[in-house]
Amino acid sequence: MELNANKIALVFAKYILWAAVTAMSFFVLLIGRASLLGAIAGYAGRGFYQTMQVRVFDKVYLIVAGLLALAGMVIMQQYMGNSKGWKNLLLRFSLALGIMLAVLAIFTLVIPIFNVETDISAIARQRLIGV
Q1: The pTM of the whole model exceeds 0.85
Q2: How many C-beta atoms surround the C-beta of residue 34 within 10 A?
Q3: What sign results for the dihedral spanned by CA atoms 69, 74, 76, 77?
Q4: Is 64 a domain residue?
Q5: What tens digit of pLDDT does each residue of 5-54 get?
Q6: For the segment 60-74, what is each residue's pLDDT rounded down to a tens digit?
Q7: Are the CB atoms for 115 and 36 separated by under 8 Å?
Q8: Is 119 helix (H, G, I), strand (E, B) or coil?
Q9: Taking the alpha carbons of 19, 25, 29, 31 in that order, is the dihedral positive or negative?
Q10: Position 94 in a domain
Q11: 3-state DSSP assignment of residue 2
Q12: How far apart are CA 29 and CA 95, in angstroms?
């Protein structure tokens, strides 16, 4: 069985682009968490039970979004691995990247809509010393 340099480069490119999509999914996961916490930070300041509800909601988000990201990674590995040729690989990568950027745009629009501060250290400082 003979492998030429183009096929080897295509296999490496598939895994490199898959790793880029995987890294982007982790980034979307963390930005989504920051947006979620920023959107409900005002609710957490009402009392003890509301704070506990926010913590539970945060944990549930991380579990569900983490499982979805893991499933997405497996699906993307299969999707990228089945590409035939460079043009098809780049088309599949651009489609996956476009979907990730659309989800990222939705998450980043949550922050200005609710107009709350998402810096966790600033929220903690505000709680502790009232600044």
Answers
A1: no
A2: 16
A3: positive
A4: yes
A5: 888 888 899 999 999 999 988 888 888 888 887 777 766 667 777 778 88
A6: 989 999 999 999 899
A7: no
A8: coil
A9: positive
A10: yes
A11: coil
A12: 19
